[in-house]
Design goal:
Helix content is 28%, strand content 35%. It has 257 residues and is an alpha+beta fold. α2 runs antiparallel to α4. The protein is elongated and about 75 Å long.
Length: 257
């Protein structure tokens, strides 16, 4: 009986000791990032774009010294505190990133200023752009800029604006994919027009067609196997591939198969 009491007493002490070591997780705000700290160690970091990274005790890149956080590859430290940023401070911080080094975003200084004003207004007025994720001048489309945002539910949206729209502050709705069937019809019509003899175009719509949606950029990607005859009447086998953005065809290629 005495031994049983001693064991119970020791278990109670051990339980108290373990409980004493467990500290409630604390939310800390560092710049535009939010971290979770437990037992003096950073266990999680939420970035400006909503991305969350779980951090182990041996985190390779991020460190926390009790007052600030630092990334191994970035020189400056981000001071931390217990007060969250206001919505206006968050918008200002996210939209002003382009001014410091415009060339990173393929912009000149003037374009960076326009983008700062444009994205700040977008976050204030468009529910689909609650948080600015990224933006840049396109290297493929002449004088076009893309803007990536996430809404309140962290769903991604992409906007395309011309240089003129960027300067004037004219916003457009985000790119939105069309239904798979509509995308197939658009693609099939385009592939028919590319056939040497369009009347011989014969698509395998049931067994040789695929259609998928890339929702975060508002695109549809369609691939269709088809046969068509050449000018001398020889039937060939082909595979066509189409890329649509907001229902608009931006790419259509035909390959032999």
């Amino acid at each position: 009986m005495k031994n049983k009491v001693v064991v119970t007493w020791l278990l109670a002490i051990a339980s108290i000791a373990i409980s004493a070591k467990v500290v409630k997780a604390e939310t800390i705000y560092c710049g535009l990032k939010t971290i979770t700290v437990q037992n003096g160690k950073m266990t999680q970091i939420r970035h400006e774009d909503g991305t969350i990274h779980k951090l182990g005790s041996d985190s390779k890149y991020w460190s926390y010294d009790g007052k600030s956080i630092k990334h191994k590859l970035i020189g400056e430290r981000l001071p931390c505190g217990t007060n969250p940023k206001s919505r206006d401070e968050i918008i200002d911080g996210l939209s002003s990133r382009f001014i410091k080094n415009p060339s990173i975003y393929n912009m000149d200084k003037q374009e960076a200023l326009w983008m700062t004003s444009f994205t700040a207004n977008l976050m204030k007025t468009d529910k689909n752009c609650h948080v600015l994720v990224d933006a840049s001048k396109s290297v493929v489309r002449n004088d076009m800029f893309y803007i990536d945002c996430s809404d309140h539910s962290d769903k991604s949206h992409r906007y395309w604006v011309t240089r003129g729209d960027l300067k004037a502050g004219n916003s457009r709705p985000p790119a939105t994919a069309v239904t798979k069937l509509v995308a197939i019809n658009i693609c099939s019509t385009e592939l028919r027009s590319k056939a040497m003899i369009p009347s011989t175009y014969n698509p395998a719509l049931l067994t040789g067609t695929s259609s998928r949606i890339v929702e975060n950029v508002g695109r549809n990607i369609v691939e269709i196997n088809f046969t068509a005859k050449s000018a001398i009447g020889v039937e060939g086998k082909f595979r066509g591939r189409c890329v649509l953005e907001s229902g608009r065809l931006i790419e259509a290629i035909v390959l032999d198969r």
